[in-house]
Known about the structure:
The chain is of the alpha+beta class. Helix 3 crosses helix 9. The protein is built from 9 helices and 5 strands, in the order αααααααβββαββα. Strands 2-1-3-5-4 form a 5-stranded antiparallel beta sheet, covered by helices on one side. It starts with 5 loop residues before the first helix and ends with a helix. Strand 1 and strand 2 form a beta hairpin. The radius of gyration is 18 Å and the shape is globular.
Amino acid sequence: MKIGPKYKIARRLKAPVFEKTQSQKYVLSESRKTREKKGKKGAMTDYGRQLLEKQKARYSYLLTESQFLNYVEAAMALKVVKNADALFENLETRLDNVVLRLGLCNTRGGARQLVSHGHIFVNGKRVSRPSYRVSIGDIIKIRDLSLGKGVFATLDERLKTLTAPAWLSLDAGKKEGKVTAMPRSQGAELLFDMKSVLEFYSR
Length: 203
């Protein structure tokens, strides 16, 4: 997926949706610019707000418009009250996202590349599709033959300080994780409002 200038996109969305825009230096810089521009723009319309939230969500997961739309349509097709939870669950249980959440890689793009290049096993079998959806009980680990590669040079140090989400368990010694439950948007630290995302596509 071609992204474009990440700092510019994050500034437009007013959210640090990329890893490189989550540094202390960037946050302080944007805070200063926000104070300087305060009061220069009028109130945002509902459509504008919903579009902004949709873009935040899409870039957070590094998905194209068509890929993201497929997830939205699948969630909205379910005859359930909480479509937002269904959408969040489908996005979070992507294999590339789980690799990121477990700290096996420190960027989403890197996690996607690890999966695509066959470095990740699920239940003992190599899976090279980043969109592969994990289920409760699945065990995700790095292929043993891949552990000597430079990309994993700082993995041990990273895993020492990592706190995995409540729906995942991490065994830092074995460098593997397990899906223990389904993710829920309630209580999760999100950069976007899932309800507004669905409202955008419901117009």
